[in-house]
Amino acid sequence: MIRIENLVKTYGSVRALDGLSLDVEPGVVYGFLGPNGAGKTTSMRILSGLAHPDSGRAWILDKEIGQPGSDVRSLVGVLPEEPAFYGWMTPREYLRDFIAPLYDIHGQVAAQRADELLEIVSLKEAANRRISGFSRGMRQRMGLAQALVHRPPVLLLDEPVSALDPAGRKEVLDLIETLRGQTTILLSTHILADVERVCDVVGIIARGRLIVQSRRDDLLARYVTPLFEIESEDGFGHWLEWVKSQAFVTNVTVSDHTARVLVKDVHQAQKELLGSLARESLSVRRFEVVQPSLEDVFLRLTGKEA
Amino acid sequence: MFRTLFAKEFREQWRTWKMIVFLAVFLITGIISPVLAKYTPEILKSIPNLPAGLADFIPAPTVADSLAQYLKNTEQFGILLVILLTMGVMAQEKERGTAAMLLTKPVSRSAVILAKWLAGMTILLAGLLVDGLACLAYTVVLFEPLPFGAFWILNLFLLIYLGVYLTVALMASTLARSQSIAAAGAFGGLIVLIILGSLPRVSDYMPGQLVNWGNSLVLKGDLTAWPALGLAAVIIVLALLIACLRFEQEEI
């Protein structure tokens, strides 16, 4: 559905994209993750036709971007990171009289679609207010509405929820969930909890290259290191030396009365650790396998400390 | 698609008051020009302690004075207004991010430029109609009727002449990435045209000569300025072409 091969893009001495390749299958919500400056927005801009790559190629629905006679823009809905509007227009005018006609949607059909979208993005009550008075969150929702006017098969969403409050975020993420299966969505974000919630596939990008691309659950299973947190009232004494010497343990850190034990094999660790704690007669207040999170994977793969 | 882009430009100029101010200034220009021509000698004569006999040398105003005032005021205010109206239209869209939003839609970049140009020219045409009608009416009341056909050909020449400035300002706005650079470019273009227009011999070929041609037509003179008309057309077409080609290639 979306295919990128070896995209390279430089701005002066900065290599924003350094051979980026990725593949997005039809109907999935693809979470495009990366630290600031990793190349997410540059990729989105190239896919939207706003920027040209120095080399490499990209396709949307088998149409190659940037080739003569291959305009993909009617197939794509784009929400930029900071959507901008004509402040003198109202949302209804913007959708009905400006955006819809650009997709050859006119008259009553355009009016109905505008009202439907304003309802979906919870802006119906502000439909006749000037956009210039809108908050950032309202603009973001307005941006989503304009991307959906022509019911595109592909949506490119650049940080769609970063400006929203928790309630607004939930609404937008719920909306994205309703589009799952019918629309292919490439969603760039740095909010990992949102990716965990809505994305089927995750691609992690750093320094202009794709580090890993996998289904979300596979990624978690493959990369998250099992971690045990043990809290003891009296400290750990000799037990610490013992646990550090075990082959199934990769790292141990202690802060206050809590030991964090990274292990290779979670099942072996569970048995061995519980047995050893009982043998040492330590007063264990808490023994917990910490739930793996995408944040751990992200930080590990992009080379940052957790 | 072009109709949607044109309608948006037109509505934007109306809703942001720019068109209203533009038309109001042209209306005032059209009214005030014959009035100034008529009453300036009266005002001069009424100055206290005027040297004896000087009042007799102040000639009685004629329809030619009314026309001269009209041309001078329309040219001065017109150039300033078209530059102010146009210099930000593209640069502002790029600066604010609305151009990026628009270009993700299936629109031709050249159509965006041409819609802005046509909207600007339409507003300029409306301004000259208001200006011309007001001048005609007040000249009839204060002097005598101006030759109707020749007067509107003169206004057509004014449209082309001011259209040169409008198109150059639009080109500057397209080439610039910010409104301040666009403004510098637009006024830079104005200065270049003024300097060239003041050079002997060269001025005969410059678009400003169209105003003299129109004036001569109304006053039944025999001056023509075909080269100036040709050069004005060339400047307009070239400036539009440069703007379109540049915008087609530009990364937003």
Question: How is this structure best described in words?
Answer:
- The complex is a heterodimer of chains A (about 300) and B (about 250).
- By secondary structure, chain A is α/β, with parallel strands linked by helices.
- In chain A, about 35% of the residues lie in helices and about 30% in strands.
- Chain A has ten helices and 14 strands.
- In chain A, helix 2 packs across helix 3 and helix 3 crosses helix 4 (about 135-150).
- The two termini of chain B are about 20 Å apart.
- Chain B has eleven helices and no strands.
- Helices cover about 80% and strands about 0% of the residues of chain B.
- Chain B has one domain (about 1-250).
- Chain B has about 250 residues and is an all-alpha fold.
- The mean pLDDT of chain B is about 90.
- Chain B is elongated and about 70 Å long.
- Chains A and B meet through helix 2 of A and helix 1 and helix 6 of B.
Brief rundown of the structure:
The complex is a heterodimer of chains A (306) and B (252). By secondary structure, chain A is of the alpha/beta class.
User: DSSP strand (E) fraction of chain B?
Assistant: under 5%
The biggest chain-chain interface is: A-B, 28 and 20 residues
| CATH overall fold name of the largest domain in chain A | Rossmann fold
Would you identify the regions of chain A where 5 or more consecutive residues have pLDDT less than 50? none
Give the CATH architecture of the largest domain in chain A: 3-Layer(aba) Sandwich
Average pLDDT, all residues of chain A:
88
Give the N-to-C terminal Cα separation of chain B.
Answer: 20 Å
Q: How would a textbook summarize the main sheet of chain B?
A: none
Please identify which CATH superfamily of the largest domain in chain A we are dealing with.
P-loop containing nucleotide triphosphate hydrolases
Overall number of strands of chain B: 0
Task: Enumerate the spans of chain B where pLDDT stays under 50 for 5 or more consecutive residues.
Answer: none
Q: Class of the largest domain in chain A, according to the CATH hierarchy?
A: Alpha Beta
The number of helical segments of chain A is: 10
Overall 3D shape of chain A: elongated
Count of extended strands of chain A: 14
Helix coverage percent of residues of chain A? Answer: 25-40%
Q: Gyration radius of chain A, to the nearest Å?
A: 24 Å
Evaluate the radius of gyration of chain B: 20 Å
**Number of individual domains of chain A:** 2
Order of helices and strands of chain A: EEEHEEEHHHEHEHEEHEHEEHEH
Strands ordered across the widest β-sheet of chain A? 6-7-8-3-9-10
